[in-house]
Design goal:
Helices cover 18% and strands 34% of the residues. It has 146 residues and is an alpha+beta fold. The chain is globular. Keywords: Hydrolase.
């Protein structure tokens, strides 16, 4: 079986966010479901951007859309586990932001999952990909990510 291996860029961390596994996040295996994991990562990503004064749906006047998502599952989480989500952003290249996220158990630091996604920025006038605005780059630089 071929597995995804993601290298989390510790030097690019912009935010840490605590979350809890909700009972509604559980699947038939009685652990955190893959769909709920993506929702928890989304919540942590929005909080990370907000900590920089950015809004995911209006990044410097541009909308954003998830172009791709890769997740490496590493351990189970169950209700009511406390989790810590770390978000890191690589320096922007072209018309996208590459966002890494790592989800750990808050009590013992065990890794639950590592994820990488690309947010493509869209020009609201024509819906086409747009360069990362200077205001977004500046916010990332101030956070030490770029």
């Amino acid at each position: 079986m071929e597995r995804i291996r993601l290298d989390f860029p510790d030097e690019a961390i912009i935010h840490r966010h605590t979350l809890a596994v909700r009972i509604t996040d559980m699947n038939y295996g009685r652990h955190l479901g893959h769909d709920a994991l993506v929702s928890l990562l989304h919540e942590a990503r929005v909080a990370a951007l907000a900590s920089l004064g950015l809004v995911e749906w209006d990044l410097g006047g541009c909308a954003s859309v998830v172009a791709d998502l890769a997740v490496q599952y590493q351990a189970e989480a169950r209700w009511p586990d406390a989790l810590m989500a770390e978000t890191a952003v690589r320096p922007p290249e072209g018309k996208a932001l590459t966002v890494y996220q790592r989800l750990r158990h808050a009590d013992d630091d065990r890794l639950v999952a590592t994820a990488r996604l690309n947010l493509v920025l869209l020009d609201p006038a024509n819906g086409r990909p747009a360069a990362v605005p200077a205001s977004v780059r500046d916010a990332l630089v101030q956070a030490g990510a770029a």
